[in-house]
Amino acid sequence: MKRIRRMLDPQGANNSLASLFAVIILVAAALVALSVWPVKPRALNRPTPAQQAGHPQPSPYEKWLTQEVVYIIDAKERAAFVKLKTNEERDEFIKEFWERRNPHPGSPENTFKVEFYRRIAYANDHYASAARAGWQTDRGHMYIIHGPPDEVDSHPEGSPNPYEEWLYRSIPGLGNNVVMKFTDPSRSGDYRLAGAPQPKRQ
Fold it and tell me: Residue 160, preceding bond cis, omega within 30 degrees?
């Protein structure tokens, strides 16, 4: 403060104007220092929505088991996978899992696997609702298992509820001309399978 006063008043005059200038200079210097001080961004330390809700993200192996192949893995395979102890064993199991379903064993591209993940992506893009991801919905489930229907009869404004009817000309184990009806009683876009798939009546 004395140095600033000497700079403002070389003659040593101690007047109120010099004091005011000194205060202004100090405040300005403090503001400049604060503006250039590095601040650690808080956004980087914010927990994810899942962490905030107390739901940790699943591991890649848990996701593979419970979200990706949940509709096609059988009970014996599931039990064997759960017992594995190391990631190396899990990776080898997954590799063999897909190879058992490869229509051309040993081929560099597993067409079954490629088509399976295409169906999951399609279901997530087209059948998701506000409450469930596309793969979790009934339409997504049927699409992933059976592939695209041969015909779709859609009634988004149907009465009393919106509905869709899917026709599959052939489903192994279910027969020919199989019809699946999905209804949306909540009108939320979450269509539910209405009863078991039935052969189309002639």
Answer: yes
Domain ranges, ordered by start, for the chain: 2-36
Residue type, 130: A
Distance CA 170, CA 179 (A): 10
- The predicted pLDDT at position 56 comes to 73
Tokens 């899917």 belong to: 166
Any idea which residue has 């601040």 for tokens?
39
Structure confidence at residue 202 (pLDDT): 55
Query: Which position has the higher pLDDT, 179 or 21?
Result: 179
Distance from the first to the final alpha carbon of the chain: 100
DSSP secondary structure letters along 144-184: HHH-S-SEEEEETT-SSS-EEEEEEEEETTTEEEEEEEEE-
Residue 152 pairs with which residues in a beta bridge? 166
Work out the number of other CB atoms within 10 angstroms of the CB of residue 120.
Answer: 19
Three-state secondary-structure class, residue 85: coil
Helix axis angle, 87-100 to 75-82, nearest 10°: 160
| For range 185-199, the mean pLDDT | 88
Of 100 and 159, more confident: 100
